Structures are given as structure tokens and as C-alpha cells.
Amino acid sequence: xPIDPASVPKSLRRRHVLLCVGGGIxxxxxxxxxxxxxxxxxALHVAMTASAQRFVGSSTYFGLTGNPVFTDLFxxxxxxxxxxxxxxxxxxxLVAPATANIIARIAAGxxxxxxxxxxxxxxxxxxxxxxxxxxxxxxxxxxHNLALLSExxxxxxxxxxxxxxxGHEGFGRLASTERVFRELQTAWLxxxxxxxxRVLVSAGGTREPIDPVRFIGNSSSGxxxxxxxxxxxxxxxEVVLVSTASHxxxxxxxxxxxxxxxxxxxxxxxxxxxxxxxxMAAAVADYRPTHVAxxxxxxxxxxxxxxxxxQNPDILAHITSLPEAKGIITLGFAAEDTxxxxxxxxxxxxxxxxxxxxxxxxRSDIAFGSDYNEGSLILRSGEIHSFQRRExxxxxxxxxNVLRDLSANRNA
Length: 412
Ligand code: PMT
Description:
Blueprint: E1 16-21, H1 27-39, E2 43-48, H2 58-65, H3 82-89, E3 92-98, H4 100-107, H5 114-121, E4 126-130, H6 134-138, H7 140-151, E5 155-156, E6 160-163, E7 169-173, H8 177-191, E8 198-203, E9 208-211, E10 214-216, H9 223-234, E11 238-243, E12 253-257, H10 261-271, E13 277-280, E14 287-289, E15 309-311, H11 315-320, E16 329-336, H12 340-351, E17 355-360, E18 372-379, E19 384-391, H13 392-411
Parallel strand pairs: 1-2, 1-3, 3-4, 4-5, 8-11, 8-13, 11-12, 13-16, 16-17
Antiparallel strand pairs: 6-7, 9-10, 14-15, 17-18, 18-19
Helix pairs in contact: 1-2, 3-5, 4-7, 9-13
The structure holds ligand PMT.
């Protein structure tokens, strides 16, 4: 079988995929899959049952993937709890060939070896590609166990009919590469509804310098923007986060650090091409000092002082007026403390946004600096969604749901 990385769906490239190899004659086919997936840019780890190693040696997968192969629950050289490490690492798992035995063990919730323990500990989508004798395939026990796995949300790629290793003709052959890779993509997209979408997010409060050590700023921690960036990345989006704040690096998020409104505007405009959603959670200073002192201002020289301010450009209004922004779904945030809805509606319209989330910045239990937020999302259509106080990460997912639907309607 020729190696054809083009057969690997694009959405799987750069993803973390774990291949769990079961002990069946069809195991040799999965060595070729490991090769194709790796050549296509998938980050692939392989775990093997003891009987799988009687069909194909672990060094084959090591050679093909360049990654150490997991064969044991206890390893003196690898991570201390390899099944936990692997299940945290994997974004998608393929079990192939899934023998009658391994299917029964997964159905029973066993955790007696590296494969079953990892599967039990994992939260990501799992694809099961069975292969076995025709009699085993048609047995009530196997079909019952497969139905159980399917009910639990696992994706089954049914065995195909053809000539079996035993010489029998019938159902039991491992499904074709094309069908298995297609199911991997379906499984991935089932929990990664933003795959293929580029999301541009801003976070934090801008810092407008007065002199080399002082600035005009605000209390934005960047938590809201980071929560949105992370939620979008976890759902498969390509995420660029332009931020004045820093938090632990988020997986799959490209962070561009900036300080001032001008830098934020420049970075966002540069990153705009290819963007599907622009989400401005940053608290941008409306004004900046007109003159920035070259050296630290000495207090003795100024018993009192006045700082002259110049208005900053409105980043959102500027971007939404660009021809490149056509078709991009835009969400702004409105920091208000009175007449929330009225001010929010005006801001949405003035900035040409598809939606604006209005939050009450006079409250200490939400918005600035808090892990929680509450507010109303006003859409261009006039529709309003209210969100009671909840964690920013939960709110982030709910806002992304609305934007995803707006985007789907726009492209319909
Ligand atoms: O960062 P956290 O601590 O988690 O706090 C979150 C938050 C309170 C900062 C966030 O929820 C929020 O309300 N962000 C918007 C703050 C703000 O600048 O609001 P505004 O009403 O002044 O601006 C309205 C919108 O225009 C915002 O999306 C803002 O990013 C944008 N804007 C503002 C000024 C400007 N010159 N250019 C802009 O694009």
C-alpha cells in the first residue's frame, strides 16, 4: 500500500492522536497508518497490548513515528503514570485492530494494561476499528459490546466483508484506510466544531506610557480574553490572542504580546487575513498621553502637573470599516455601569459589530479581575441573550456557540 499523506484529512494535521494497537493479524496494517499519519503532520503516539506485540514489534512504530511506544503500565524511563499522561496528551484515540477481547475489556471498564487503562482515563473522542473472525464478529457478545461502546459515544467503524486470514469469506476485515481516516475526522469534528476556523481575540488592558516607567492603564486582567482563546482552541479553532496580559501559555493559542492601543491595532490588523471571528475582550484606553517623556519625570520639578491626552483610534470601528473585515463575525465587549442595554446597543451600532456583550464593571464579583462574568449579548438582529453570573470559561463557550451559529447562517 503506497504511503499517501494526502489521504489524511487536513483537520487532523498537528493534532495529538493515540493509536492503540490490539493483538490481531490486521495489526500490520496499522503500521502503514502510523506512517501515513506521521507523514501528514499528525503527532502520533502508539500504545500496544501484550498480544499486539506478538504481531508487530514496538520498534516498528518507534521507527515510523519517532516517538517512544507505550507497552507497559509501569515504565522506569517514561512518565510515572503513563496511562494518565497519555490520556491527557491525546486529543483523539484510534483502537485498531480492535479484537473481540479488547472490545469486551473496554466494555467492562477494565484498566489492566496500558491500552485499557488509557482508554478508561481519557476524555477525548475514541474511534474503534474492529477486526476478527467472521464467527466472532457475528456473535451476540461482540455485537452487544459494540452497541454498548457506541451508546457511550465511541465511534465504531464496522468491520468489512472479504477474505479473512483464516481463509473464510465474511465480515471481520479491518475497515479500509479511507473509512477509518474519515471516521477519525468525524470523531474529531464532533467535539471540535470550530476546526478550520481562525479566531482572533484581544485581552487585557492597554498601557499608555507617560514616561519610561509610568503608564495610564486599567484593571483588566485578561482573564475574559484568555478564557475565550482557550475555549476556541479546545474546540479546534486556530487561535491568535493579542494581549497585554500574560497567563500560563494556552495549548494551541498563538499569543502576541502588546502594550498600547496602537500596538494592539497594528497586531490585530496584521493578523486579520483569514480570520472568521474577531472577539475584542480587551479594555482599550480611549486616550493616551500626547507627549511621552523620554526620561522618568522627576517629582521635584513638578509640584503639580497636567497630562494632555490625545484620543486613541477606535480599534473595532477601524477594523470593521476595512474591506478585509467583510464576512468576519465581530464581537465587542461593552464595559458599562449604568443603562447597560441602552449603551450597549449604541456601541454595537457605532462600531459596526455583529454582537456586543455588555457587562457591569461597577460590580466586584464579576468582570474586571474576576473569574466570573455576567451580562447581556446584544445581536445585530436586536435579539438579546442574558447570561447569569458564571465562570468566564463557561461564558466563553456559550458566546462561541452564538458566534458559531451566526457564522453558519452567514455562510449558508
Ligand atoms: O480582563 P478581565 O479582568 O477578565 O475583565 C474583562 C473585561 C471587563 C475587561 C471585559 O469583559 C470587557 O468588558 N472588555 C471591554 C472593555 C472596554 O474597553 O469596553 P468599552 O465599552 O470601553 O469598549 C467597547 C468595545 O470597543 C470593546 O470591545 C473594546 O475592546 C473596544 N474598543 C474600545 C476602545 C478603543 N479605542 N478601541 C476599541 O476597539
